Amino acid sequence: MIRQEAAMFFGSLLLWVPLLLGAGVGRWRRKRAGDNAPAARLWAIVNLPGALVLLLACNGVMAPRTLAWFRSLGALPFAPTPGMLQGVAMFAAFVLGYSIASMMWSGPAQDASTASTNAPGTTGPVNKHSSMKVFAVICATIALSSGTGVVSQGLRKGGFLTTSDVGGLPELAQVQEQLRPLEACSITYRRRDKRGQRQHPNSVFIETCSVGEYIIVLIDVPGTWADKGVGFEMSRGSISEPWEIQVEKAEVPFPDLEKALEHFAPLIAAQYPEKLRERRASASEMERHLDEQQRLEQERKARAKGSYPR
After folding, report:
1. Among residues 153, 10, 165, 164, which one has the least CA distance to residue 90?
2. How far apart are CA 301 and CA 116, in angstroms?
3. 129 to each of 134, 135, 165, 182, how far by Cα in Å?
4. What residues contact residue 11 under an 8 Å CB cut-off, 6+ apart?
5. pLDDT of 96-127, one tens digit each?
6. What is each CA distance from 227 to 20, 67, 202, 231, 233, in whole angstroms?
């Protein structure tokens, strides 16, 4: 979770690249539009709301919710990933910059009209920098709202700005060795919910490293550690990497954390491989059942076609 929130923060910063690139392309295209300038501006006005909605939905604090919604549909021909959402957000940022620039910067015909309006002997202020100022205000507003969302997410209880990685401490080396061989990349105990409350005092949640495999294994643990305020999130990028152990230092005393991890590690190492096999077998059986149901439904529809007398 911490790794995902940090990636979300840097992903928001990267959106400046396609945003500015789109603005540059939009300005260049606007200057070359000539007589087609009104059509180009209309196209930009139509696309601007859609690009803004996509940008907000696929980036920042909304990205995990959008990803969960896509996965809940269950009818997509592909498995959506955070990388896909980031790509959509970058495309939306490009379209947003392009649309804003297309609406604000004038083409050659309008530039000539502006020059004649402001020629000697005529009245009317010259405000050639107004478009740039408005564009800068819009960009600053987008950046501020995105940054505020990321920072507020990080400052909440359990967020990436309130936790620290203690996985490299020598006192936890034995825990690292016990859990290193497991086919897992996420281990959490009493993760905080959206309201900041810790839940599930009797279970450790474990996720695999396989992309697109939505399997969670639960290991039962004594709930007495919950009474001591213990809660942590462990994550790593692959089986070969050491574990990051994120904990709220201001909330969880290290002796209690150390003892809890020493208690949990042998339980997880002993039970997780077999439970993972069981969960995968159950998931495969469920998938076969759904495929069989779909096949029978298709056969029924095929039999129904043309089965009635004319």
Report:
1. 10
2. 71
3. 9, 10, 48, 60
4. 59, 86, 89
5. 878 777 766 544 444 444 444 444 554 444 44
6. 51, 34, 11, 10, 17
Residues in the chain: 310
- For the chain, the structural domain boundaries read 1-104+135-155, 163-294
- Note the Cα 234 to chain centre separation in Å: 19
Where do the H-state alpha helices sit in the chain? 2-14, 16-31, 37-57, 63-73, 82-104, 108-117, 130-155, 173-179, 254-304
Indicate the angle between helix axes 130-155 and 16-31, nearest 10 degrees.
160
Single-letter code of the amino acid located at 246:
Q
Pair 240, 251: CB distance under 8 Å: no
Tell me the Ramachandran region of residue 208: left when phi exceeds 0, alpha when psi lies from -120 to 50, beta otherwise. beta
Query: How far apart (Å, rounded) are the C-alpha atoms in residues 232 and 214?
Result: 21
pTM over 0.90: no
Dihedral, CA of residue 82, residue 83, residue 87 and residue 89, to nearest 10: 20
Strand-pairing partners, residue 217, are 206
Model confidence at 195: pLDDT above 80: no
Residues 6+ apart with CB under 8 A from 62: 56
Query: Could you report the per-residue pLDDT of 8-38, keeping only the tens digit for each?
Result: 555 566 777 787 888 788 777 777 765 556 6
CA gap 159, 247 in Å, rounded: 10
